[in-house]
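QUALITY CONTROL LOG
STEP: pairwise intake check
CHECKER ROLE: data steward
CRITERIA: each record must contain a sequence immediately followed by its structure tokens, with no blank fields

ENTRY 1 OF 2
RESULT FIELD BELOW
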Amino acid sequence: MILDKKRRTPKKDTKKLSKKVADGAHCRIVTELLDPDSTQGDAVQSWRVFRIMSEFVQGFELLRSHGLAATFWGSARTEPSNHYYKEAEELAARLAKKNFSIISGGGPGIMEASNVGAFKVGGRSVGLNIQLPFEQKLNPYTNESLNFDFFFSRKVMLTFASEVYVYFPGGFGTLDELFEIITLIQTKKIEAIPVVLYGKGYWEPLLEFFRTTLLDKYQTISPEDLELMHLVDNVDDAMKYIEKEVKKIKNVQQI
């Protein structure tokens, strides 16, 4: 510590402070959240926060214009020839005819299939897209869309977008969104809403892991937590479950 001779109080060590600022330029808050290419200092870099805020504002303004809605999740790699693609399209079309807005991540695969289904029957088809270096580009079957730069702001929009969440087979992104929703329901941060797992062949091994490992072996979840998700294997069963469960949700337009 350096003392100011006149005041006998600690004096800032400018060398250490400069080093601290320089080191801070390499921390993740700067390199990933702020703007690492800014040459005008932290004050200017921090304006990137307003870009994040604008994504929240635009997202909420878009979603508040939609009433009853269903969000579809699933792999971006699912081809139109795949039976899951066709079934996602059919389910979305039937829900759109019941006055559901169909919301997806806006990309290809299952997301595209759900938007196609709504689009073909004249329904409301929404895409909340994310800019990625591979796989993801906005599909042409949306009549409303937003492009996001930040995963977390897009995730908040998708979390609060709908009264129904339908999960087709997918990768890490699909699983991430599934765990997000069931955690929010489990912890009562959001109202219990229908969570549909579509495709027994894909989801049953995961549900078995929940039962045998999380519940029976380690007791890290409760028996009722397994009831937060409903497994179906065809469009008819999915429709019956959704129509029945949506009527139980408070403050929602009835179908």
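ENTRY 2 OF 2
RESULT FIELD BELOW
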Amino acid sequence: MNRFFILVFSFLLTFTGTSCNKKNKSPLMQEPVFSTYMPTSAVDTNSIKEIYYGLMTPVEVCNIFERLDLSFNDTILNPPDNADLYMSSYKAAMNLGIYGVDMGYMKLFGVNRQTVSYFMTISKLSNRLNLPEDYLADAIRSIDRSINSADTITELMTHTYQKIDEYLRLEKSEGTLGLMMMGGWIESMYLSTQLAFDPANPDPQVVEKIAEQKYSLLSLLTYMKNYYDDPMVVFYTKKLKYLDRWFNSFDIYYKKGDVTIDTKKKVIITTGSEMTVTVETLKQIRDYIAKLRNEIIMV
């Protein structure tokens, strides 16, 4: 089953030979700035976590916010009315990704009526990618009946993006799909860095979550470079490469024997990590993400 934002990147295993392995520190190796390991020598099986190294669905992004226990803030989201601005296919695609993450964010906090509004906006934008009118008809008919069922809304979200993914692949529009993926990735990073990252008092687990996105950014870049026949894919890939220079400026290390890679789920399983990322680097990532996100949602 194809899932929006999850692609089969078997070659991503190449990164396990570098920053995913805990190396013997040499005098030239930068010391970690942040660590999420528990202050104990024993492995705590209750603290085992999964790090996605593929690209995440809006549902999976929603789960991240749930773990971070963030307060709801709808002023930071892209308003549904903005959808009327996105007449080009590339703008519609990128903002489809953004609205999917925003909808997942609202679903997490049980904001049902706004969730329906975002779902209808997603349907409107999918039409601008030439999806047939009846392609999402079943999901649209179901959304009002399911307004009080968070689980059902989640299923509808997942089904809708599966259908969009399916259609774009069928129409050989993988470049457009890449732009949609990028929009979702940018929005998840935007919400994370704006709502969860406090430069004055950075939480190590939040820092870790942001730093780990260097893996998913690699996935996204690797996918998009295959569709350089689309000028907008080239244009935005260059912007992602500019962002990637900050992610390449730090490393993430794991203790020897504490890393398992599940290639089916596209996750790294570990109990913690150490990072050499600095607060200044995180601020630069946050600011550039905000600039790029603003460019995407504005016309």
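INTAKE CHECK: passed for both entries
DESCRIPTIVE NOTE, ENTRY 2: Confidence is low (pLDDT under 50) at residues 1-28, 41-45.
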